[in-house]
């Protein structure tokens, strides 16, 4: 690792609160394929985080399933629904964003230019890759502790029916109930070539911007904008 990479690993160890994790595995978890490919083409072999993300996804599914089985009297269908919701890209992106992990993922200059640090797929994959790295380095218990520390609130909200994957519908319900209007979604800009485009969309209520979303499709960007708008709109209502 070069000095910059060492510093990034050092900072992420602080963020996740695990000082004794294998630094090589954590470095791999932080390497997006664009960063790996960029350096590999220059003669330096770096593994991307794709394999760790694959492992972390499986470990996370087991963590959530075990937690639901042991702590809640839920049927199979409800457990499957909650696991799918909490393990979705949208929720994992949100969990990673709360930790500011997107600030530390290693990207190529081109991916950085096109908003890679805000792409839900890249950042949610990073979260799973870190779980994979923790699991390989320190075992299942440590991986479970990290995952549940950051996802327990989402699990609770999902069980209580307060966690939504369709935030556009949720936002429309809120605005129609309180203002008798529907939110609007405005495309602010789109970056990148046609095969790798990123969309930036704002959720607007009564002429005011309440949320912004960035995604690989308009649909995803609108959902992320609606999620942020739901939070800000409810906060404004509760503050009245």
UniProtKB/TrEMBL annotation:
Keyword Nuclease annotated: yes
Organism superkingdom: Bacteria
Keywords, sorted A to Z: Cytoplasm, Endonuclease, Hydrolase, Magnesium, Metal-binding, mRNA processing, Nuclease, RNA-binding, rRNA processing, rRNA-binding, tRNA processing
Localization per record: Cytoplasm
Alphabetical GO biological process terms: mRNA processing; regulation of gene expression; rRNA processing; tRNA processing
Domain RNase III: 9-139
Subunit structure, as described in the record: Homodimer.
Protein name according to UniProt: Ribonuclease 3
Record organism: Marinitoga hydrogenitolerans (strain DSM 16785 / JCM 12826 / AT1271)
Gene that encodes it: rnc
């Amino acid at each position: 690792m070069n000095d910059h990479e060492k510093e990034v690993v050092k900072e992420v160890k602080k963020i996740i609160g695990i000082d004794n994790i294998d630094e090589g595995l954590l470095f791999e978890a932080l390497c997006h394929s664009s960063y790996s490919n960029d350096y590999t083409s220059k003669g330096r072999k770096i593994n991307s985080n794709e394999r760790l993300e694959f492992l972390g996804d499986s470990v996370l599914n087991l963590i959530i399933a075990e937690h639901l089985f042991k702590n809640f009297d839920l049927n199979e269908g409800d457990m499957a629904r909650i696991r799918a919701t909490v393990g979705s890209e949208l929720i994992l992106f949100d969990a990673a964003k709360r930790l500011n992990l997107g600030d530390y993922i290693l990207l190529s200059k081109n991916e950085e230019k096109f908003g890679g640090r805000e792409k839900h797929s890249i950042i949610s994959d990073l979260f799973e890759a870190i779980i994979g790295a923790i699991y390989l380095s320190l075992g299942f218990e440590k991986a479970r502790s990290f995952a549940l520390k950051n996802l327990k609130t989402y699990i609770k909200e999902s069980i209580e029916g307060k966690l939504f994957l369709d935030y556009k519908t949720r936002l429309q319900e809120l605005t129609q109930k309180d203002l008798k209007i529907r939110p609007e979604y405005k495309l602010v800009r789109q970056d990148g070539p046609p095969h790798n485009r990123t969309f930036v969309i704002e959720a607007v209520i009564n002429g005011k911007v309440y949320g912004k979303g960035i995604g690989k499709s308009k649909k995803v960007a609108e959902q992320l904008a609606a999620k942020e708008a739901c939070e800000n709109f409810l906060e404004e209502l509760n503050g009245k």
